[in-house]
Design a protein that fits this description.
alpha+beta, 259 residues, six-stranded antiparallel sheet, 20% strand
Length: 259
């Protein structure tokens, strides 16, 4: 439900609502769509959108729709965790891609979802539900399970107690079964997900640790079901994950910590 324009809301919160209306699947929005998604009256939305456009945070397209501006994109690249991870992970992602010619992606935890911050995809690889900047559910994606297994009891309990949406007939929606899977993920440092989020897609994921042993990201390869044996890919994914973790300061003697 869109938020309304109650008098108590600050101008900054309204500006943020407008900016956060954009997503990978809706990178261009009309003024009417922005008004509807935020609950702002049309005149208010128009005034604020024009202010954002003047500063370069938004850009007006030739057809009158709006999209994220270059200045806001430049600001986003300064996010230290995301940018340093993307830079350090690039060689490992490229090596996995060169060896396997499949989707290779890096994700971080944001709230109750995983956010893809980098991906390389082969031209003929199967289609996936999300792109860079997109969000994935924690309970049925490879990167999501790798992250959720180390997210700490509060978030894990909230996810298990909530609605576990069934995306395919293979999606695990039983809380106790999922709890056992997460325990196995913690033990092995990896997750194998077969057709739970996208029919015909298997994901092989591993955790990424920093120098203090905190799990800060997950790395995965997504393959077409039956094209390769996931167990054959697992060793390469885990090795890449450990290599990236070392780049972030982790060493074998450092205990892996939950969030």
């Amino acid at each position: 439900m869109p938020r309304t324009s109650e008098p108590g809301r600050s101008v900054s919160s309204r500006l943020l609502d407008l900016l956060f209306s954009f997503s990978p699947g809706e990178s261009e929005l009309s003024l009417a769509e922005l008004s509807r998604k935020t609950g702002l009256p049309h005149p208010t939305a128009r005034r604020l959108v024009l202010e954002l456009t003047k500063t370069g945070a938004l850009e007006m397209r030739p057809d009158g729709r709006f999209g994220i501006g270059v200045r806001l994109w430049q600001l986003g690249t300064l996010a230290p965790l995301t940018e340093s991870l993307r830079t350090m992970a690039q060689p490992f992602i490229e090596d996995l891609y060169t060896a396997l010619h499949q989707h290779v992606q890096l994700a971080i935890l944001d709230g109750e979802e995983a956010v893809i911050i980098e991906r390389l995809s082969a031209p003929r690889a199967l289609g996936l539900v999300s792109q860079v900047g997109g969000r994935l559910p924690l309970h049925c994606s490879g990167v999501g399970k790798a992250l959720l297994s180390h997210a700490g009891p509060e978030l894990t309990g909230r996810i298990l107690a909530g609605e576990l949406r069934r995306y395919t007939p293979r999606t695990v929606t039983d809380p106790e079964m999922l709890r056992r899977e997460l325990a196995e993920c913690r033990r092995t440092g990896s997750a194998l997900v077969r057709g739970e989020l996208t029919t015909g897609a298997d994901s092989i994921a591993t955790r990424i640790m920093d120098g203090e042993g905190r799990v800060v990201a997950s790395l995965s390869v997504v393959v077409r079901s039956g094209s390769v044996q996931p167990q054959a890919v697992l060793a390469s994914v885990i090795t890449s994950g450990l290599g990236l973790s070392r780049r972030l300061g982790w060493r074998p003697g450092v205990k892996v910590r939950d969030g």
